[in-house]
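Much of what follows relies on a compact textual record of a protein's fold. Each token is a code from a learned vocabulary of local backbone shapes. The record below shows the convention in full.
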Amino acid sequence: MNELYLMAAIAPRNCARQFLDLFARHNAGVTLSTLGAGTAGNELLDYFGLEKTEKAVIFSVVTRSTWRSVKSAMQRELKIDVPGTGIAFIVPMSSIGGKKPLQFLTDGQDHETGEESVLKNTKYELLVVIANQGYTELIMDAAREEQAGGGTVLHAKGTGMEKAEKFLGVTLVNEKEMVLIVVKTATKNRIMRAIMDKAGLNSDAKSIVFSLPVTGTAGMRLLELAGDDTDE
């Protein structure tokens, strides 16, 4: 992929709608939102005159130019640089499973398909699977057949799902699950293909999968031992 990033914004829950509306105005309208909570200590909160707040975590796929536009708008309109307003960051993406999901996730953004991420020498990658709720086992069964380890599930709500009919030829519900799976780079393509074949758009799960490069890990010893004979 060329110049594609996963953007994450963390904001107070009562500000989530403002962030979603801003993203939509800047061509980042396909989003996934989930809930979180801040962990700052009382002394730090007191120092900045803040209160503990529940958080919304919003994900969207953006190009570099979209990120610049969104970042400028967040600073100008939402005052994101003011403590307690929120934070946002981007992570480079390495691949997306299929041309149609790519078009769906980047609708309205100026993007040309190119080479994969410049982070080519990573030993592991994080697979992010976006699927209808209730199909985690189907996804994990497909992944485990290609020697993936365990996964982590986040419940999320999607916006911009009405665009799915245009790009994917299917209808997507708003209630989503995000399944996070760390895999060896050597097995990534096989695992992504297995998920697409068995839990993809032609299944009830309606899964979309993409990957992010991982530059460091801990606690992956069992996966390393299990995959020693699969390295390319």
Summary: Helices lie at 16-25, 42-48, 64-77, 99-105, 136-144, 164-168, 185-199, 221-226.
